[in-house]
Amino acid sequence: MNKNIFHKLLGVLKTLLLPVAVYVLFGLLSGGRTFNERAVTTALRTTVQPAIICYALLLGMSTGVMNFSAGAVVCCASIIGIGLSNMLGWGLPGFCFLAIVVALASNTLFGLLYNWLRVPGMVLSLGMLLFFEALPRMFFPGGGKIAQADAFLSRNPYCFYIMIVTAIIFYVLYNLTPFGHNLRAIGSNQGVALAAGLNLDKIKLLNSIIGGLFLGIAAILYMSSQGSLFCPSSMSSMTVMMDAFMGVFLGMLLSRWTDPSIAVFCGVLTMKIMSAGFIAVGLPQNWKDVVTGFFMLVVMAVSANATLPAKIRADKEFAAEAEKEYRQALQAQ
Amino acid sequence: MQTVSRNSAENLEIQARLDKQAARKKIFENLIPYVGLVFCLVFFSIVTKGLYLSAANLRNMIEQCFTMVIIAVGASFVYAQGNMDFSIGSACGVAQMVGGLLLVKLNVPIYIVVPVIMAVPVLSCLLVSLISAVFKVPVFIGSMCIRSLLAGLLTIGVSKAELIIPISDYPAFGSNVVKVITLIAVIAVGAYFFHFHRIGKWAKLIGGNRVTAAQAGIRVTRQIFLAYAILGLCVGIAAVFSMFRTGVVGAQAGSGIEFSMMLAIVLGGFPMSGGEKSRLVSAIVGAMTTMLLTNGLSIWGVDPNIIGGIKGVIFVVIIALTYDRSAGKLVS
After folding, report:
1. Predicted confidence band at B325 (pLDDT cuts at 50, 70, 90)?
2. Is A33 an 8 Å CB contact of chain B?
3. ipTM for this model
């Protein structure tokens, strides 16, 4: 077997080890209650929509832009998309088309404002979050509802087809196109990327638009899985992106072994298995936010300090070498 | 290439013109927050046909401003360092929940309940600072996680039923005299520490340049902890009075305070990045403007859920007008 392919497969296996280990752990803790096909399928199915939001977030974070309005865009696209589709009688194809159009338009607006105003994306996204939460209420104050016959895209096996197609699109865009390379160049060092002749504004805007495409797909799945949605308010849309948010950071930790398209999926899957596992071991549903927040903190702390052990080791080696040279110099004197 | 030569008189003239422009810009920047405050008062008085300035609504506005101004005083120290805390709303809610549980369910005496309510946000803010200063997690994300955690705790605490506080048993907390004295005391102490004490001066120095501050011998981490503790204390005071004002602790307790605070900071002309331009009065004026705006839109008949969107747009506009764009295209 080609050595390169072997290493890639090994990386994928290493990445998969985390969700598998968490699954086994919670399976044992719950007395084997999660050791069945249904539990596995449910965990995989609920992973799809946050994983697709993850791809949108990851694109932004590759250039250092943290977009907190992603959850609000998903809600906004779901409600306006289904509302317009019901109004026009366009059915499921119309909903899919309109949800993607609304998400694309929302993220394009974000990208344009970001380029125009030159304020940090994190700060801008907070204002935009409130705007996108209020937007569907202006047109569809009662929220949105999808016909039961049309709400099958989030079910098995359709959601997995969508996931595979989306993951392939992300993989190709991120790894095999100049756009993906430019993103990583900007993420590594914006100043150098600018000096090298990259058009930062154009790439960031395109990045935002492509992120909108992923959010549009997530919006379709979100509406399909929920059946009906109320308009979000007071930043409640943050909960929509919280799972994805954690998945991104966990995925970034795992991406040292494999491609981000697989790593973020495994990251979200781990979180989903954990959430389901806590309920299986008897933790009330209400504790989900607490557990999520806590694990997010742990993941962030680990992620932020991932290079610390290597740095400490390198510092020690450097100190030992300096000490050795100093002693040699003393002896020479 | 053509060279431009100027004599000293021309140079002085150019310098004088630039100085004048800078002075004009500074006056404009200083005046804008006050203009915004007056504009809110005048605009909403006109569109609501005087209802905005009715005695009942004025009382209501003063009550709302009271809480926000107290939190703004504490937030000034954190924002002056270039930090922020996105969990203060949830911390305020959890503090009220803990206070409510102690008071209603466990019949704990009020002199124990009040310090406990004040201690909860202090602990929460210290946790945020610990995550930021020690574990090096970006403060925005760290405080978001704490917010999620605290919001979950609040939901659990009031999941069975909302806590009804017997406010008539504690008239002191509803007394306007007590509130005025508390407000004056908090502002006076805050102003002293912010402008005349090393805590405030060092906070601005840390916001200006953290590395320089550390090189100058300031224990940056300790100062960050201190600033967050002050913020927590102010949120705690606000939580005590909020609990006795509303008389009910539900899942929505304290919600929205964090964004209102950010909006207040921006509207008041307080620099988001902190530093030497930070002024306590900016945060206070911003807090008052935010409350007047929220109240005005509500009295005007705007859907409360749309108000959030309007606040978001105003936030973006003000940020666009005031943000330092020296980073140019390299902003992230």
Report:
1. low
2. no
3. 0.81
Contact A289 B155 (CB under 8 A): yes
Cβ of A194 and B147 within 8 Å?
no
Q: Is the Cβ of A109 closer than 8 Å to some Cβ of chain B?
A: no
Chain A interface includes B240 (CB < 8 A) = no
Summarize pLDDT for A262-300 with one digit per residue, the tens: 999 998 898 888 888 888 888 777 787 787 778 778 877
| Nearest-CB residue to B309 (from A117, A134, A287) | A134
Q: What is the 3-state secondary structure (H, E, C) of chain A?
A: CCHHHHHHHHHHHHHHHHHHHHHHHHHHHCCCCCCCHHHHHHHHHHHHHHHHHHHHHHHHHHCCCCCCCHHHHHHHHHHHHHHHHHHHCCHHHHHHHHHHHHHHHHHHHHHHHHHHHCCCHHHHHHHHHHHHHHHHHHHCCCCEECCHHHCCCCCCCHHHHHHHHHHHHHHHHHHCCHHHHHHHHHHHCHHHHHHCCCCHHHHHHHHHHHHHHHHHHHHHHHHHHHCEECCCCCCCCHHHHHHHHHHHHHHHHHCCCCCHHHHHHHHHHHHHHHHHHHHHCCCCHHHHHHHHHHHHHHHHHHHHCCCHHHHHHHHHHHHHHHHHHHHHHHHHC
Q: How far apart are CA B29 and CA B33, in angstroms?
A: 8
Rounded Cα distance between A199 and A182, Å, is: 9
Rounded CA-CA distance A152/A223 in Å is 10
Q: What are the tens digits of pLDDT across the range B53-76?
A: 888 888 888 888 899 999 999 999
Mean residue pLDDT across chain B: 87
Three-state DSSP class for B93? helix
Residue B178 has pLDDT above 70, yes or no: yes
Could you read off the pLDDT of B2-41 as tens digits, one per residue?
555 667 788 888 888 888 888 887 787 778 888 888 888 8
A-chain CB neighbours of B150 within 8 Å are: 293
For B118-139, how does the pLDDT look when each residue is reduced to its tens digit (9 = 90+)?
999 999 999 999 988 888 888 8
Q: How far is CA A172 from CA A211, A307, B285, in A?
A: 14, 29, 51
The pLDDT score that the predictor gives to residue A24 is 92
Set of chain B residues whose Cβ sits within 8 Å of the Cβ of A117:
316, 319-320, 323
CA dihedral A310, A316, A320, A322 (to 10 degrees): 90
Confidence tier at B326 by pLDDT (50, 70, 90):
low
For tokens 């924002």, name the residue. Answer: B79
Q: Is B148 on the interface with A (CB under 8 A)?
A: yes
Note whether A215 and A107 are within 8 A (CB). Answer: yes
Q: Does B159 or A192 have the greater pLDDT score? A: A192
